[in-house]
Design a protein that fits this description.
The protein contains 10 helices and 15 strands. The chain is of the alpha/beta class. The chain folds into 2 domains: 148 residues, Alpha-Beta Complex (Quinone Oxidoreductase, Chain A, domain 1), CATH 3.90.180.10; 139 residues, 3-Layer(aba) Sandwich (Rossmann fold), CATH 3.40.50. A hairpin with an 8-residue loop joins strand 1 and strand 2. The longest helix is centred in the last third of the chain and has 17 residues.
């Protein structure tokens, strides 16, 4: 029997319940995993509240690390005992064991811990998508990263600064500012109610940033748009602060001449070539020390607390679950 977290109905953290389920043998093109560390992401919260509906099994989660326990008849290149990570669809990572399409499983090098990978795999792939596909960040690029002390924020900051970019981060407290600076942020705007538009203008001599990454949503996105130079990119990557009010296309151009992106890492990972390239880049960056995978651990049975802490901004860095 597999231990699973099931969503009783869309809503608050009280809708998450621990249960048990029979796990059938893997299909011909599947592997069966015994999971050791499960990443927690804002995508999971969006699944819980019903923004992204779950399939019938109602098990959230999009990434984990585990050991191959069984392989289907058609599977090649993976063996029982291999340590692997995966990310993407089909969702259902909140489980002690699960079956997974074999092409999703990426074998892990011995030097990387389960916890490091579970803390950074989806977030690293998201950073790869944002820094490589959405806007090619390079030496001299000036970027804005909201929630720069968060799991994704730290990875974006660290990777972009290694590429030679100037990183301006926003955070909610002095303690989180120290974390963002340690990750490589060159400038940090502190305070949930800080006038970051004015601060960024002063930091950048009145010029806008080249690209801004906004996972806050709500009323923050319009302010983020005001921070970007003409022909720069605004990447809306989440809505932690709530639904985004409708945007008029005139807010983007022609006067501002902005490029607006609303990229989905789930869609990015559905392309096998993009998925493998990004996964390999993330694992190589972790192995070399270019990226650091650290996180706060919760037991699988404490998933409601993990969600509550992430939503309330009580954590910095990544979160993961231990079955």
């Amino acid at each position: 029997m597999a231990e699973i977290v099931r969503l009783k109905a869309p809503g608050g953290v009280e809708q998450l319940e621990l249960a048990q389920a029979d796990l059938p043998p893997p299909g011909a093109d599947e592997v069966q995993l015994r999971q050791s560390a499960i990443g927690v992401n804002f995508i999971d919260i969006y699944q819980r509240i019903g923004l992204y509906p779950l399939p019938a099994a109602a098990i959230p989660g999009v990434e984990a690390v585990g050991v191959v326990a069984a392989v289907g008849a058609h599977v090649r290149g993976l063996s029982v005992g291999d340590r692997v990570a995966y990310a993407g669809a089909p969702v259902g990572a909140y489980a002690s064991e699960r079956n997974l399409p074999a092409w999703r499983a990426v074998r892990l090098p011995d030097g990387l811990s389960d916890e490091a990978v579970a803390s950074s795999f989806v977030k690293g792939i998201t950073a790869h998508m944002l820094l490589r596909r959405i806007f090619p960040v390079a030496s001299g690029t000036v970027i804005l990263v909201h929630a720069a002390a968060g799991g994704l924020g730290q990875l974006l900051t660290r990777w972009a600064s290694r590429l030679g970019a100037t990183v301006i981060g926003t955070v909610g407290s002095d303690a989180k500012a120290a974390i963002a600076r340690a990750a490589g942020a060159h400038h940090v705007v502190v305070g949930r109610d800080a006038d970051f538009v004015r601060a960024i203008s002063e930091l950048n001599d009145g010029r806008g940033v080249d690209v801004a990454y906004d996972g806050i949503g709500g009323t923050t996105l319009r302010k983020t748009i005001a921070c970007v130079r003409p022909f720069g990119v605004v990447a809306s990557i989440g809505q932690a602060a709530g639904l985004i009010p409708p945007l008029d296309v005139e807010e983007l151009g022609p006067r501002r001449s902005l490029i607006f992106a609303r990229p989905s890492v789930m869609a990015y990972m559905n392309d096998a070539v993009d998925y493998r390239a990004a996964a390999d880049a993330v694992l190589a960056a972790l192995a070399s020390g270019e990226l650091e995978g650290t996180g706060t651990a919760y037991r699988l049975r404490d998933v409601a607390q993990a969600h509550a802490d992430l939503e309330a901004g009580r954590t910095s860095g990544a979160l993961y679950l231990r079955p």
